[in-house]
Amino acid sequence: MTTALFPGSFDPITNGHLDIIKRASAMFDKVVVVVGINNQKRGWLSIEDRVTLIKTAVELLPNVSVMATDGLIVDLASQLNATVLIRGVRNAMDFDAEKSLATFNRQLNSNVETVLLPTLPEFESLSSTRVRELYKFNIPLAPYVPQSVAKFLKQKRDFNEE
Fold it and tell me: In which pathway does it act (predicted)?
């Protein structure tokens, strides 16, 4: 049984992330989406909201679970007996960064392989950063994030405007 981790900040999860999760869930027995906690950065959404939004987005994928960690991904992989790290790549710049990270992670834990999944063309320009910018300018988010995320962010905006 192969367990794969898909780490990221997911601030918020996008349709590009969800596509990678769906594809990984078809490839591996178990996929754990891991929201990384970076104590040096203040996230846009809380860790709890990110985890909840991802859980809602993947609820129809029975072999996918979601958790958060503030530790090293390779250490978590050892704890969960995961042997694969999933990373999405949108372009050559992503590939170079992810290749370097994969090499570093392999040095830290030689039992973990990184699998790079190329993003589908329709998601190549999509990122959480761009979603946050669209939100700032009140652009509808439905084409870019799962429906539950778009609904949550609309409610967040409506609440903040009251």
Answer: Cofactor biosynthesis; coenzyme A biosynthesis; CoA from (R)-pantothenate: step 4/5
